[in-house]
Amino acid sequence: MSLLVEAIDFGTTYSGWAFSFLNDFLLDPTKASVKQWYSSGTLVTEKAPTCLLIKSDGKTFEEFGYDAENQFRELADNKMHEEFYYFIRFKMALNKKLGEKLDRGTTIEDEMGKSMIALNVFAMAIEYLVGDMMKSVNDKLTNPLKKDDVHWVLTVPAIWTDAAKQFMREAAVQAGLLTNKLTIALEPEAASIFCRHLSVDTAISGGSLSIAKMPVGTRYMVLDAGGGTIDITVHEVVSEHSVKEIQSASGGGWGGILVDKAFENLLIDLAGPDVYDAFKRTETEDWLDLWRDFEVKKRAVAPDKNARVGMRFPLSFSKTFKRITKGKLLGAIEASKYASDIEFSGDKIKFSAILFKSMFEHSVGKTIKHVTSLLRDENIRKIKTILMVGGYSESSMLQHAIKKALTGQDVVIPISASCTILIYEFQSKVVFEIFATEQCNPRYTTECSLIGKLEIDLPEPEKQPGRGIIVSMTFSGTEIIVKAVDKKTGKDSSVFINFLG
After folding, report:
1. pLDDT tens sequence across 177-196
2. Which of 40, 269, 279, 487 minimizes the number of CB atoms within 10 Å of its CB?
3. What is the pTM of this model?
4. Coil, helix or strand for 393?
5. Same structural domain for residues 50 and 170?
6. Cβ distance 186 to 226 under 8 Å?
7. Is 241 within the bounds of a domain?
8. Residue of 389, 416, 368 whose CA lies nearest to 220
9. Which domain covers residue 97, as residue numbers?
10. 65: left (phi over 0), alpha (psi -120 to 50) or beta
């Protein structure tokens, strides 16, 4: 067992890290040292925006988090931002459906439309977080540790494909971590196990209910709501320190960024895509300020508040509108379907509570629909407890909607929540393809999608009828574990399925 475990929460909108020494864990499993991030003002948070600033060569890391935001703003103010790559929310590039392509050559676009190899972008972000954490750890020690002295944990959504999980592992290895020192953990499972150690008073709601007090055999639903995905699983208590998954993970890309998308669509609906695009590219500093202000308002909105929501609105947006359309933005608003819901004057804009809350409808609606459909399943319909975790679970809009739609359930919200294969003669390796499908009883591979390949080396190739390899696959963990036993030699080895081509 390692004396130190370091964990990276790589989120769509926000990321952070924490570490725990073995002695501290034995005394209190919930005790961990967490990074404190400082924004440009007095705001201190336990996570920083998942923002990455990279120089134009595509190889040189510049900044991460709040520092990346602030420096990009300064670059934009000096009209120098086009010389850099600015990536935000790029984790969603890995949120693929079964059959959708993801490989080592996959590219992603930054906010200004420039492309880079996705694996390099993820590796740079992980490398920064690893280095930042190691510095913090070694500041506390007399004898500095190396990365190889630590066991690393990297969390991923449970609904991700095996290719996406492998992608994150390879990005971490590219960032300098040893694969045998790295565990890929499912976000809902990590949260669920953590909550098994929490007392009643560490829940925002749920009355006297505590996940920690649940007896062995109790089942509950975990709703992991993040900025990018809504991840839903059903767990059963196995022991004080472990749970097991009894319902395969499901969900979708319905996280908090859908609220952002609704706001962006509103601006485009009012001003047109050409105006919005021009504003973003030529008035980038104001564009960044607008979105930072919206993030604050989005977090503050509550279902029981009916007052209008006011925001600062850059004058440069109105000027860009006039330059491109030859008209006035106020006139466009008054002639739109939003005339009674938006008040606009100078650098101020106010939205009716109804309009602002409506931006949550798509995200919340998709989540409620999916949860209620799951609860109709006879295997889980008797579940009476829903554990809400993830940053988006802190939204009072989502909390209220879940409680209102699922009146029969207790909602708990923690605070800052085999086969044998024959071979041909003199064969040096065995390669076979892995197929997957969402159908319950497929008969042919034509009904499936090819998702990966498994390659097993034969160390002593020869002509020998009946020689074979016994392959076992274990699906109970985060990643598929494959072991191969050579029937001739009795030697066994662990191999990996290649999901990235």
Report:
1. 999 999 999 888 888 877 77
2. 40
3. 0.82
4. helix
5. yes
6. no
7. no
8. 389
9. 4-195
10. left
